Amino acid sequence: MGVNTSVTATTVRINEANQAAALKRLQSGCSAHSVVSGYIVDEQEFMQTPFLARALELLHMECELDGRDLVHIGFAGGKNDMSHHIWPLIEEFVEQGSAVSTLFETGEVETVRLGEQGDDQYAESAHTDVSEAADEFLGEMAGRKITDTELDAIMDSEGGIEFVDYNRSTPLLVACENYRWAVQRHAEAMVEDDAEVLEEAADRLGIHAHNLEIVLRRDPDMTACDKNGCDALGFAAQSRNVEFVDRLLSHGAQVSTSTFVDAVEGLSVAVFKRIAGNNAHLANKDLLIHACAAASYEPEKMEMVRHLVEDFGCDVNSKAAEPIWTMEGRVGRHGTPLMAAALTDDVAAVESLLRAGANVHATDNYQNTALHYCSGQTWVGGNGIQSWFARDENPQVIAMLLEHGADPRARNAAGRTAADLARTSQDHGEPESN
Q1: Which of 74, 106, 179, 402 has the smallest C-beta neighbourhood within 10 Å, fewest atoms?
Q2: Is residue 327 in a domain?
Q3: How crowded is residue 113: how many other Cβ atoms within 10 Å of its Cβ?
Q4: How many whole angstroms separate alpha carbon 204 and alpha carbon 183?
């Protein structure tokens, strides 16, 4: 792995029996390395910690737990990615069959299998089937109306309506994403006292309504997904616009498990009800966590939380099957709605969940409790858009959790308490300890 990379998938596992030896090797090897030693967050703590997970954190790495084994070990990426220096130190302690997939800035994906003699390595290009003309045309759809003639011409050259840009988005996906944002901006402009802003928003909405209609007339594949796994109906569900949802359903779009997540993150109960209809069996157990992870200042958040708990029957102690990234940070694997609400400093959501029976002692895959999440420091990596900071309600959330029995002495997999995490953030009110 190189410097300008990001880890996209990893199944690396270090068994409990090998962790002490791996830690010793890391501490001796990294401290002696002239380059790596300069990137250790706190070299003194790095040399003294008895926790391999904490040593990895101090190297800008993160991992999860499976029982007592460390798994899913990965780097935050960017300038602090010292993977090409560090992996050789721990490779011998990695269980056979472990693999790491890395995305390079060039678009190549490299998969390396570790712990076996003769690492199996291959790379594949993500852009080989994309033409510059197709990418340019789809990019122009963001700013102007396209014509039937233009679209037909590029369809002839690309072999149909399913051509893609460098983001793996088809004309339908581009049109739906553009329309999704135009719908939202127009709704916001409707409540602003500015005729010029409203006129501009209406013009943009008209452009993207036109483009969407032209694409829909070509009977595109409604199941196509972009590189993030979002399909056309997903963009509609995010838009908070029931008419947009109905329009795609009338063209054959099918509700899926991910559609429910998109509807919840859109925070429109009306859209959620329309999606649910006869499809409730497709909903997964993470929905309430997604709702609680929304920013506390979103006025529709609590309506969605209450609907999911009181009307849809979501479990207040459900656990996330996979990590959930938000603007506030990350809710880890096996994280709960209460952890998501604590991360967002949402007093109303925390109070509602506790009243409904949320467990303050529940832990995520890294042994963090909801109290740990009040620090905003329960994650290492990310994609650069996360911007957590303690809100005015943060001390109130901490006090509420402590009043309901949260243990300030509980330690996560790196041996850190909530107060330890809080001390790493200058803007955070520190949880009390006994």
Answers
A1: 106
A2: yes
A3: 17
A4: 9
Q: Which residues pair with 110 in a beta bridge?
A: 102, 123
**What is the pLDDT, as a whole number, of residue 114?**
55
Please state the φ and ψ torsions of residue 68, each to the nearest 5 degrees: -110, 5
Please say which residue of 78, 110, 142 terminates a domain. Answer: 110
Indicate the residue type of 89. Answer: L
Residue 321 lies in a domain: yes
| Three-state SS sequence of 145-207 | CCCHHHHHHHHHHHCCCCCCCCCCCCHHHHHHHHHHHHHHHHHHHHCCCCHHHHHHHHHHHHH
In-domain check, residue 131: no
Instruction: Measure the CA dihedral 90/94/99/103, to 10°.
Output: -20
Q: How many domains does the chain have?
A: 2
| pLDDT band at 137; cut points 50, 70, 90 | very high
Residue 411 pLDDT class (50, 70, 90 cuts): very high
User: pTM of this prediction?
Assistant: 0.81
- The answer to whether 353 and 393 have CB atoms below 8 angstroms apart is no
Domain interval for residue 13: 5-110
Length of the chain: 434
Look at residue 57 in the predicted model and tell me its pLDDT: 84
Confidence bin at 71 (pLDDT 50/70/90): confident
| Sequence-separated (6 or more) residues with CB below 8 Å from residue 424 | 375, 377
Predicted pLDDT of residue 142: 93
Q: What is the pLDDT of residue 76?
A: 54
| Chain segment 342-373, per-residue pLDDT in tens | 999 999 999 999 999 999 999 999 999 999 99
Rounded to whole angstroms, how far apart are CA atoms 95 and 37? 26
Q: Which of 60, 85, 110 marks a domain boundary?
A: 110
Least confident of 116-120, 163-167, 304-308, 377-381: 116-120
- Give the bridge partners for 75, in sequence order: 61
Residue 182 is assigned to a structural domain of this protein: no
The vertex-138 CA angle with 136 and 139, nearest 5°, equals 60
Give the domain CATH number at 392.
Answer: 1.25.40.20
With beta carbons less than 8 A apart as the criterion, state whether 337 and 318 touch: yes
Q: Is 53 left (phi over 0), alpha (psi -120 to 50) or beta?
A: alpha
Q: How far apart are CA 177 and CA 46, in angstroms?
A: 45
Interval 27-62: pLDDT, tens: 998 878 777 777 787 888 899 999 998 888 888 777
